[in-house]
Amino acid sequence: MSGMERCRVMLEAARIIREQREEIATMETINNGKSIFEARVDIDISWQCLEYYAGLAGSLAGEHIQLPGGSFGYTRREPLGVCVGIGAWNYPFQIACWKSGPALACGNAMVFKPSPFTPISVVRLAEIFTEAGVPKGLFNVVQGGAATGQFLCQHPDVAKISFTGSVPTGMKIMEMAAKGIKPVTLELGGKSPLIIFSDADLENAVKGALMANFLTQGEVCCNGTRVFVERKILDTFTKEVVKRTQKIKIGDPLLEDTRMGALINRPHLNRVQGFIKQAKEQGAEVLCGGDLYVPDDQKLKNGYYMRPCVLGNCKDDMTCVKEEIFGPVMAILPFDTEEEVVERANATKFGLAGGVFTRDIQKAHRVVAALKAGMCFINNYNVSPVELPFGGYKSSGELCVTSPGTCQLQGLRVAPGTAWSCVLTPALPCRIWQGERPGSHRVLLAAEDCLRGDG
Ligand SMILES: NC(=O)c1ccc[n+]([C@@H]2O[C@H](COP(=O)([O-])OP(=O)(O)OC[C@H]3O[C@@H](n4cnc5c(N)ncnc54)[C@H](O)[C@@H]3O)[C@@H](O)[C@H]2O)c1
Question: What is the ipTM of this complex?
Answer without folding.
Answer: 0.96
